[in-house]
Amino acid sequence: MFLYFSSQRRPKTEILVPKLLIEHGKEAERAPYVDGTGAHAGALLGDIRHDPFQSGGLETPPHVRVEEGSIHRAHRGVLFIDEINVLRLPSQQALLTALQERSYSIVGQSQSSSGAMVKTEPVPCDFILVAAGNLDAVRVASEDLTGGMHPALRSRIRGYGYEVYVNDQMDDTSENRYKLVQFVAQEVVRDGKIPHFEMAACAEVIREGQRRAGRTGKLTLRLRELGGLVRTAGDFARSEGKSIVTMDHVLLAKLSSKSLEQQIADQEIEKHVGDTSTMIEGESIGVANGLGIVGTGEVGEPAGLVVPVEAAVVPALSRSGGSIVLGDALQKHHGHGVENVGAVLKTVKGAEIADHDLHVDALVRHPHAEVDGIGIAAGIAAISAFETLPVDQSQVMIGTIAVSGDLRPVRATLQRIEAAAKLGFKAAIVPTSLKSTLLVDEYIRKKIEIVFCDTLADVAARVFTGNSAAKRSIVERLQGAQANRATYTNGHGKKPVVEVKRKN
After folding, report:
1. Best label site of 192, 199, 313, 397, fewest CB within 10 Å?
2. Contacts of 171 (CB under 8 A, 6+ apart)
3. 232 with 312, same domain?
4. CATH at residue 253
């Protein structure tokens, strides 16, 4: 027993030996690059290991249990963190402290651990932070401390560095087309199983890059989604036992490699073919067809969704005058621009509109659909209800209207046109401002006519059927209101030019 206690009183030589966390040699070394993506608090900021033997002479000294974090290993180098908004707010606060102080003490990250009461001296961590994320990274964090970037951390990034928004398009030049061809070859080599592409197949991939850009003169830079098309086309060729991928394989891949939103929209189209609520032919009063979209486009392509808009005019119930009453579907969705319809109606109906209430509603078949492209349809439906003019249901309208009656474009117009073509509409009316930028495949143009219009008067002249006096009257009033506005702008909207001469 005496020998045992005497051995416990002897000093342990290993206690006197410091623990080396990070070693920097005297010779010139390459700056470290540390990937901290997905790291928890202990791996990112450092931690103190738990010691199950905390007494009785068997405990491990605290300095031996110290573990450095990614911020310390990235000293004098680069720390990369992807999806920065995934980090919890306490970790983001510690990260901004390390950025500002260029040193950070290592503490125990778990409150139930024996290392919770251990804290080291500040450890150097002078690094360059490269953080990446989507647009949701700059939103305000939720109550559960996740889902957003800390405002103070973003302030440090803006104060000490730069914020860069990466382009999702590039110019359609010969050099960039060759880069896309090189990208196709790289994807084939990376996959290792699919055959190479012939020139016509590469040309079709470039064509798809133009289409997904949504503008003429541009190519998409969403290469991850484009790479999925390349691999799908290669799988088709491999399943047929071909040694090379042809253009037909790429066309098959375009039909099969659809985003989830497009597949949902296709199912909705199949369900509602022959549905009386969506008329693709004939005439109707107070009803016009617009187009919304499903999906944001951040992952995959958004899908077009037909949204029938209905309007009804009733005597005003309020003594103070008429108003525009939105249905439940439009109250739940914002950005539809139906409010501007009232301004247009006042220009053509005058004081008569004060004696009526205008009820506008839409049939939105998807709970997360965006209905920003139904403004033109709402204006036509409202005028049709006021004047009892029938509307040609074989034509669909894409876009919104300004208070002046001018047409305004909306995003994902191409996907909306494709959805209308699948349903069997004969014509799609879009703003003229898209004429030079809208890139539509030839097989879509064979299915549906694309009509470009400048103002609501141009749309009214086309979609109102017949050649009645009421139709001519409403078109003339819309054109007259537009002409009066142009005259006012040209005659009185310009400030006089004053010539100032300097005295000698």
Report:
1. 192
2. 217, 218, 219
3. no
4. 1.10.8.60
For 14, other C-beta atoms within 10 Å of its C-beta total 10
DSSP 8-state assignment for residue 219: E
Q: Which of 266, 273, 237, 233 is nearest to 251 (CA)?
A: 233
**135, 85 in Cβ contact below 8 A?**
no
- CA atoms of 119 and 40, how far apart (whole Å): 18
CB under 8 Å to 175, separation ≥6 — which residues?
none
Return the axis-axis angle of helices 413-423 and 260-271, rounded to nearest 10°. 30
Residue 319, Cβ density class (10 Å: 0-12 exposed, 13-18 middle, ≥19 buried): exposed
Please report whether residue 12 resides in a domain.
Answer: no
Quick one: DSSP state of residue 350? G
CA distance 457 to 286: 17
The answer to whether 261 and 297 are in contact (CB under 8 A) is no
Contact call for residues 76 and 31 (beta carbons, < 8 A) = yes
* DSSP 8-state symbol, 18: P
User: Which candidate, 103, 90, 85, 86, places its Cα nearest to that of 157?
Assistant: 85
Closest listed residue to residue 306, CA positions, set 368, 258, 365, 261: 365
- Asked, for residue 17, whether it belongs to a domain, the answer is no
Query: One-letter amino acid identity for 251?
Result: L
Cβ-based neighbour number of residue 472 at 10 Å:
13
Would the pTM of this model clear 0.85, i.e. be above it? no
Strands 303-315 and 400-401: unpaired
Instruction: Answer yes or no: is 100 within a domain.
Output: yes
User: Does the residue 495 lie in any domain?
Assistant: no
By C-alpha distance, which of 93, 100, 92, 84 is closest to 156?
100
The predicted model gives 329-335 an average pLDDT of 70
Q: Mean pLDDT highest for which of 46-55, 84-93, 108-117, 328-337?
A: 84-93
Q: Record the tokens describing residue 197, joined without a space.
A: 């592409």
Helix, strand or coil for residue 490? helix
Give, for 361, the enclosing helix (H) or strand (E): strand 356-362
Element housing 255 (H / E) = helix 247-256
Angstrom CA distances, 104 to 34, 69, 70, 100, stand at 17, 10, 11, 10
Instruction: Tell whether 209 and 355 lie within a shared domain.
Output: no
CA–CA dist 168, 299 (Å, integer): 12
Q: What is the pLDDT of residues 67-109, one digit of tens each?
A: 888 999 999 899 999 988 888 888 888 898 898 899 999 888 8
Per-residue pLDDT averaged across 154-177, rounded?
88
Return the number of other C-beta atoms located less than 10 Å from residue 159's C-beta. 9
Virtual CA dihedral for 224, 227, 232, 238, nearest 10 degrees?
-140
Give the distance from CA 415 to its chain's centroid.
14
Could you tell me the residue range of the domain that residue 52 belongs to?
30-160
Q: Among candidates 303, 336, 296, 282, which has minimal Cα distance to 415?
A: 303
